[in-house]
Every structure is written in structure tokens, then in C-alpha cells.
Amino acid sequence: MSVINNEDVEKVLKKFEPVMGLEVHAQLKTTTKLMSAASNQFGSSPNTAVSTICTGMPGALPVLNKKAVQMALQAGLALDCEIQKRSVFSRKHYFYPDLPKGYQISQYDRPYALKGAVQFYLNGEKRKIALTRIHLEEDAGKNLHFDDRGVSLVDLNRSSVPLIEIVSEPEIRSTAEAAAYLKALRLALRYLDICEGNLEEGNFRCDANISLRPRGEQKFGTRVELKNINSFRNLERAITYEILRQADLLDSGGKITQETRLWDADQNKSISMRSKEEAADYRYMPEPDLLPLEIVERDIEDIRKKLPEMPIARMDRFIRDYGRNIYDADVLTASSSLADYYETVSKAIQDPQLASTFIQTNVLAHIANVETDIETFFPDAKALSDLLLKMKDKTLSLNLAKEVFEIMMAEKKPAAQIISEKGMAQVSDDSALLAVIEKVIAENPGQLAELKAGKDKLFGFFMGQCQKALGGKGNPATLKELLEKKLKG
Amino acid sequence: MGRLSQLRDDLKNKKIRLTEVYDDLIVKIKTRNPQVNAYLEVFEEEMRARTKILETEASEAAPLAGLPIGIKDMISMKNHVVSASSKILEGYRAPRSATVTEKLKKAGAIFTGRLNCDEFAMGSSNENTSFGAVKNPVDLARTAGGSSGGSAAAVAAELCVGSLGTDTGGSIRLPAAFCGIVGMKPTYGRVSRSGVIAFASSLDQVGPFADDALDCAEILQVIAGRDARDSTTMPVPVENYVAAAKNGSLKGLKIGLPKEYFISEGVSPEIVKQTQAAIEVFKKEGATIKEVSIPHTEYGIAVYYLVATAEAASNLSRYDGIRYGKRAKDFASMKDLIIKTRSEGFGAEVKRRIMLGTFSLSSGYYDAYYSKAQYVRSKIQNEFLNALKEVDVLFAPVTTSTAFKIGEKVNDPLAMYLSDIFTVSINLAGVPAIAFPIGHDSKGLPIGGQFIGGPFQEAKLLAATAGFEKAHPITKAKLACQ
Questions:
Q1: Is B355 on the interface with A (CB under 8 A)?
Q2: Mean pLDDT throughout A133-157?
Q3: Minimal Cα distance from B231: which residue of A?
Q4: Collapsing DSSP states into helix, strand and coil, what is residue B14?
């Protein structure tokens, strides 16, 4: 089973229902690490963003980063979790060179947030996937293997970088839903500005728990944990691969083993990492070097008050208040800066439809990254509003507006300046247009005769000649109206 | 007057010059240390360099200016080796100082050297060390007690005027009692553990050794306090310990005697006798005596050896040969490297405790052992706190016997563990206690008693001890080292 065939997938999905839950690790964008004052700067040279704490020196004690706790609380509140007033850090033990203390400090049986949900639209319908919990923990370092030199080296820059682990309930039922869930969760964290959300760079990581059950069956099947999914493309491939693998096994009378499998993106397949029997005994114990994390109501309220509007709420509002459809609302809320941009323009020109269309067809065509590029993009919301207002007051036609827009991007000048410098205002004045119309009619008696004889499509020829004479600046609607009157009258 | 206070007065009054003090001290260390084995390393050059600086700068305002203080080999001093008396930390130098040594240095103290101890502070006799047992300065055939044996012996043998030790289950108080000096374990959370090599994080506490209560107070005054680098230190104001010790008295003090600590079975009759004599002194000095009870005392040792070993197994996971210290030479894989390094680097007692701790934290055993131990621990703690509501301080013996012979208990770990029977529960409860000399046995070996106080009541303990010292001075045992 190496090539995935869509027909196979459809056949399998008719028979079996996939049951999935995702565990997402999100690195928090703090300045310093979770347990030390070392810099949390991605991409520093190996072992430079470290302190005695994140290298596990004898006698070094963890000191909890308040900012990380605040970010974690933002996530918990934004995802509607129940924040726990008292949560406890534990030690999770295992030996590995990239784990300098021999244990990871993580919340275990007393996480800081329980329940909550991630919401998103899928195929035109709103879906809500419940969360089990969110907990706070520190990341491990990285082992780097140099086969050519026969050495393995350890980089501890990532050691003690703050992570939140967001665990969903097994409520996801399809590959598309898994991807939509992951995108919605990432967007929520990006709106909060607490995580880069980049799967490829590893600051946003996803493990999937997958089982199959025959359609109609209530009981869950045996689950398999899939690790090392490092892109959205891999997420869909890995899940589909696993669904087919399990279906194959079940169809041939086999049994699913509870195990952890590793996705190999190069070979497009998963390999078994360890079975339940081989599962490590992490010997969890409460972390004696840290007091339990106490969160008071006032802190929760302070953070709740400052929460931005979350993407799903904003989408719903765009649909309700600006008459957008789900597709538009989804595109326009792809980042909070884009949504801000849209909303500013829409309000300024009092035309949500024009703002939506113009931004989608013109602005977004020039932007690769809706999050960062829009913030530095010119025309900014004010400048674009001014441009579109020139359309609303008929100074510009749509085509002229597009031309002005291109010049604005190139020359970083406001619309009004370009219009006056280049004389780009459209001609809407009746007498000026009539003068041109009369001149064109007078110069083309042959075509006029043909038109009068019933060759209607020559109307377009006259329109074209008029616009040509006007340098393309004739107000198309007015011109058409006047020309019609003149030719038919 | 203790030697620490005496020396400070003499320096202040220009009776003696700092360089002379250190010339004499270095000679003394060179003669006596080979006999007692207290120092693993003597900072001779550093001592001389610091005396020169201090002599010219005359920083008399600093409370410990120019005073020679020894440091247990569990506590980091920047750029110095710190090894926990273990081979596994071979060649390791601390990249930064512990908060306590930083504070001492700021207070003007001069570090004399690194003091021997049981490996990772695990032991009651200072025989579990990679560098040879510490010998009791009073009788060189006997142990100095552990795990801070070097810290106690160095003070007793006059190779410094004060020292720092760590106390996880009695590691300050037991050697203080065996060597006939004063040693204090402060309240858990009173003194920073930052930069102190961890044995059992919820029990470890740094404390001073010195000749008497006042000298201990001088050191504690400097090292106590909240530290942002140790989240378990508490923002409780630091009392004036020095004043408390200077004005020490037993008058009007309510002293509780926990009856479970006054058993005769397994306790040397001479210790029983001396403890009773001490109680008579308390009464004579105007203290009132009341019997109290800590009913769960009998579970103290069991609970302690579950909690301490579990935390130790966890804390010692970091010694894997990857980043610092010893690394095994021939290894076939990553796993093999870790296993070989730890097998070669750790001593027998450390391995025993890692195995015990790993077992009790294992899945399926956690609830039966670690979790239950924590439950009983909280009972013991409540019992101490309740008893201390009725009285000012508790009084109890420190040890069941006077210093035993080197080698006597090394092959019987259980007997060794029982040496800590009067000390471990105090660590489990997190309360402070001070061990001080109350007399000698017929062989002339020191006997210690301990006052135990409520959380952050170190001042009360120091005052009570100073009161006893004034009322009933104990002649210092004759030193066996020349």
C-alpha cells in the first residue's frame, strides 16, 4: 500500500468511520524561556540561547516565566476553557541527550485549563470540536546527527521554550475536519499573537490519535498515535494513510495494535515507533522546585478583558453585519490585520461589498502573507478607502481605479495626487461626453448607417471609439446612456 | 565567645592582622587536614589574595569581613570545582555561585575550601564519599557524622570559624552533635537552594555550623531570605538572629518534649541521661516543660526514605555524561553511554537510593509508596505544627548514640538509616531545628540536643540555645588531631 487511491479511500469511508483527536504543541512567543531568563529566539547559533537552568547544571532551579503563564491563560480563555485556580507542574522522566535534566517539567494530572472548544466552518456548516485540556510545559532541546562525521551533537537552544499542549476530544471524523480544526486553532493562537503557528519550523506541532469503527458502531476502536506530522499536506496524507492501513488490517481479520507510529514524509508512510507494552514509564511526580501555580480571579478577568475578538466571532460578525457569505468572511478574517484592514475600508466607504471584492481581487493578489504583509502594505486601509471613495463619487471607473491602485503601489502616493498628476479622473460631464460622441458619430458615417440598419453589435464599436477619444476616462455608465440616446434618438 | 565572634572583635580592635590569621590557619589546615580529611580542596592562594584585598580595603562594615568560612562540596562557588564528593562530577566547575556563597562573599567572608561530604549528601557517617571518610576530630577512629561531616569536622578542628552544610534528613544536626559544635537547619524556604546541588528538593536546606549559637546566627543572618532564583524561598521578613542570640535566655520559655523522642530502646543510656540533665537546666533557668506528642513519628524513617529517594532519583537524572562531569570511555550507543557513565560515576549508596526512588515512582507503585508517603508526611507536619502551638520550642535528642566507629555500619544500610531517626521528621515537617552540645559520654565523645521551632522561628531557637550555653557551658572535647 504505497500509492493512495481516492476510490479506495471512498470505499473504506463508506464502511468505516474514522475517530480522531489531535494533540497540538504550540510554542509561545515569549521573550525568555519558560523556566529561565535565557532568550527564546529561534535561529540563534547552537547552545547560545541557554542558561544554567535550560542546560540542567547542578543546583540550577526553574523559575516560572509569568509572561508564558499569561499567554497560556489567553489561549485558555479564548478557547472557552475552564481555568483552574490551582494547577501543578510535574516532572516527566526519561533519558535522552536533548533532555538535560532527565525530566521535562510539564503539567500532568492538574493542568491549568480544562474543557473548551475550537470552532470553525466546514462545508458551509459550523463545527465545534471540544477540548479535553490545555497544559503548560517546557520544550526539549534537539539532537543533531551528522552521519558523515559519525557524531551526534546536542543543541539546547530549544530547551525550556514554553509550550502549551492543546488536547482535543476524539470528535474529529474526517481528514478535512482535522485540517480545518488545526487551521482554526492556529488562527486563534495567531489572533492572540502568542504563537507563530508554523508547522514546518516546528513551533506548532501536531500528533493525531486515530481509530476506525464500522459505521453505526458506538464503541471506539483501538487507537494509534501518529507523530511527526510537520505540514498540513502531511497531516492529510498521514491520516489518510493510517485510515487505509487500519481498514486493510480490519478487513483482513487482523487486529489494531495500540502503538505510536512515526510519519515519514519522504517515504510517504508511517513506521511503528513503540507499542503500548513498550511505552515508557515516565515516573511522573510533582515538581518540588516550583510551587503550585495559583491563578486569581482578578488576573483571569484582566486577561479576559483584553482578549481580541477571535476569528470565529469575527467571521460571524462579518456575515451578520457586512452581509458577507462564509467564503468571503473566511478569506477576510485570515489574519486579524487583514480583518482590521477590511473593516476600516468597509466602514470608510460605507460599501462592504465593494470593499470585499476590491480587497480580494486586487489587494490579496499582491500579498503572500496575510499576517505580516498587510501591515506594511500600501495602499493602507486609509489610502485604499480614499481610492474607493473616488469610485463611489464617480471620479474613477473600476478600470481606472485598478490603474490608480497599481500606480499607488508602485509610487506610494495617495489616490488624489495620482489622479490629479496624471489627469486620471473620469469624464462624467454630459456636455464634454456629448461633444466627443458627436465627433465620433460624425467621423464614422458608414458604421452609423450599418448600425441603423440593425447591426446592433456596432454599438460596442462606438463605445470603444468614444473611450479611445477620451483616453479611457469616460464614465462608462454615463457615456453608454448618452450614446444610446444619441444613436437611437 | 565563639571563635567567629572572637576573631571579628580581634580584627576590629586591631589585636591581630588578617594576614597573620591566615598564615596560622593555612599551617593548621596543612597539619590537621591530613588527619581529619575535612577539606577536599583548600583555597590557599585565594585566601591569601582575598586577605590582601580586605586588609587594604578595610571593609569593616561587612558583617563577616575577613572571616574564614568553609563550604560543603554541595554548594557552588563560581569557577571552583563542585563535586558532591562524587566521581560523576569529575572536573566540573560551577559556572556561577550559589546564592548563599554569593551572599557570604558580599558579607566579606573568605572561603577556605571545599568540604568533604557523603556523595550527593546521602549518608549519616561521611563514609559514602569518593575521597575517603571524614574523621571525627575528637576521636580519629570515629566518624564525624554525615552527610556534612567535613563541614562539622572543619569547625571542630578549628580549620575555619564557621561553615555551610546542607540538611536533608539530619545532615547538619547529626555531624554537629557527633563533633560537639552547633549546627542549624533553617525552615524549608528560609535559605535559597539556588546553586546548591540537589539531593531531595522538598527537604534540602542550607544551614550554618559554628562554635555556638551566636556564631551560627551571624552566618544565618547573611544567608537567609527570599531569593528570586529559588521559587520555594518565602517572602517572610528575616528576623534579627544576632540580637536574639545575644539576648538569649531560657526564662519563661515553654519547652515541649515530644514523648516519642524520649524512648530508651535503641538509645544509648548516656544520651538519655544527658538529655534529662539538660531538661533540668531548662527548669532551673525558668523554663516550663510540657510533654507533647508527634504520634506518627514511628513512620518518619519510612516516609523519609520514600520521599527522599524518589526526589533523589529524579534530581540525579541529569548526570548522564552528556554535558559535563564524567563520561564513560567506551560506549556502543547513546543508551550505553548513559548507562556506563552512571554505573561508573555513582557510588553504591547513591545507586541504592536511585533504585529505591525509581521503584517507588514507577507506574503501579506510585500510589502505594510515594503518594502514601506524602500523605503521612502531611500528617507528621500537622502534628509538629499543632505541638508547636502549645509550646515555644520542642527539645529532643539528635542521635541515638555518640559518634560510632568508621566502618561499623557501612555494611548495614538499615542500621545506618536508623541513625537519622530523631532528625528526619523535622525535615519532613519543614520546620527549623538547631543541634547544640549538651554534654559528653564516658569516653569524652560529644552529645547533642536539638531545639525544634515553628516555621520561620529561627530567632527563638537561637535565643533558647544561647540561653542554655550561658547557663550551662559545655567544655569543648579535647581534640585528637594535633
A1: no
A2: 94
A3: A290
A4: coil
- Give the end of a domain, one of B337, B353, B376: B376
Q: Which residues of chain B have pLDDT under 70?
A: 57-60
How far apart, in Å, do the first and last CA atoms of chain B sit?
23
Residue with cell 569547625: B155
Q: What is the pLDDT of residue A1?
A: 46
Which one of B92, B93, B322, B341 would you mutate to disrupt binding with A, by most A Cβ within 10 Å of its Cβ?
B322
Asked whether residue B477 is domain-assigned, the answer is: no
| C-beta neighbour count of A80 within 10 angstroms | 16
Look at A482 and A28; give whichever has higher pLDDT.
A28
Residues B169 and B131 in one domain: yes
* Nearest Cα to Cα of residue B255 among B273, B271, B274, B278: B278
Q: What is the pLDDT of residues A420-468, one digit of tens each?
A: 888 888 888 888 888 999 999 999 999 888 988 888 888 999 999 998 8
The one-letter amino acid code at A487 reads: L
3 state SS of B39: strand
> What domain range includes position B364?
298-376
Q: Is B331 helix (H, G, I), strand (E, B) or coil?
A: coil
Residues A4 and A237: beta-carbon distance below 8 Å: yes
In total, how many domains does chain B have?
A: 2
Could you give the ipTM of this predicted complex? 0.95
B218-252 tens-digit pLDDT? 999 999 999 999 999 999 999 999 999 999 999 99
Reported pTM = 0.92
**Fold assignment, A430-488:** Arc Repressor Mutant, subunit A (1.10.10)
Residues of A in contact with B358 (CB under 8 A): 283
Q: Does one domain contain both B152 and B200?
A: yes
Q: Are residues B279 and B305 part of one domain?
A: no
Q: Is B371 a catalytic residue?
A: no
CB count in 10 Å sphere of residue B175: 39
